[in-house]
Amino acid sequence: EEQSRDTETRHVAESVGYLVGTEGPIIDTSGRIIGELVVTRLGQPSRNQWERASLQHNYQSPVVIAKISSYNGNQSSQIRLQAVDNNSFDFQIEEWAYLDGNHNFEDISYLVVEEGRHRLLDGTTLEAGTVTANHNWKSISFGTAFAGVPVILSQCMSRNGGDPVVTRQRKITNTNFEVRIQEEEAKGAHTNETVGFVGLHK
Question: What pTM value is reported for the model?
Fold first, then answer.
């Protein structure tokens, strides 16, 4: 937890979903490239610095999920995206507003998936999409029910509000889930942002 309002960092148990994959293209059962997994490295000299990521393939409506996969700086941080288009996006390491915004080099893993429903070569069913959300919980229904409860990954893909944010999700079933934007404890409400999500089940 962050400490913008108080120094308490206790937290109840939560469910954590994750994806492990080999860096490179993601291919569906028809042989079409529908996404990619990439690992890069980034340091953050100031909160105003942005980097441009060029995708290895072109997409019509890419959904991007980006996470820090190392722990070289101990300040609370996450990845923020903006300007997502068919072959690139901007990203930065975003610290909470009460911190200085400077951050050590970290490994950044990002997943790009073409929006829609896909079946992968290993049998995994994958659905990617975007929704407009703010600090209120919003329910999202899948286009088709999964065979079981999927792993859900979500990411704020825009920067309409300048305050740092993460996404939170809950009530995941094989047909729907809820998502919202969360600012640091000392703040609260947040404007509408584009949130990307990827659901996976094998």
Answer: 0.94
